Amino acid sequence: MDTSKKNKHSIRLPVPPEYEDLVNDMLRVTVIQATMFFMYYISSATCVDVGGYITLQVFMLLGVAVYWLLFRKVVLVTVPCADDK
């Protein structure tokens, strides 16, 4: 998917095209987690566990990678069309 025309900034990474969705999902999870951590940090009166955040981030990125590199290659999920009836 070529989104470079829609976005102001484009980052070219030296990865094969079939891994583009993997990289985008990993970046998406990282941004969501970082935003959640920041919001929790500014709203919490107690000390925030940075080590726990990093561990959770690594586990989530590992899960995304396992999905794209293993599960998606083994299991095919289909949705029946209206024409299939």
Structural notes for this entry:
The protein has 85 residues and is mainly alpha-helical. Helices cover 58% and strands 0% of the residues. It is built from 2 helices and no strands. Helix 1 runs antiparallel to helix 2 (50-74). The longest helix is centred in the last third of the chain and has 25 residues, at 50-74. The protein is extended, with a radius of gyration of 18 Å. The mean pLDDT is 85.
Compact overview of the structure:
This protein has 85 residues and is an all-alpha fold.
Distance between the termini: 31 Å
The 3D shape can be described as extended
Note the beta-strand portion. Answer: under 5%
Rounded Rg: 18 Å
Give the proportion of residues in helices. 55-70%
SS-based class: mainly alpha
The DSSP helix count reads 2
- How many extended strands? 0
Largest β-sheet summary: none
Low-pLDDT windows of residues: none
Question: What is the arithmetic mean of pLDDT?
Answer: 85
Total tally of structural domains: 1
H-E order: HH
Characteristic terms for this protein:
0% strand, mainly alpha, 85 residues, 58% helix
Annotate the secondary structure layout:
Layout: H1 20-43, H2 50-74
Helix pairs in contact: 1-2
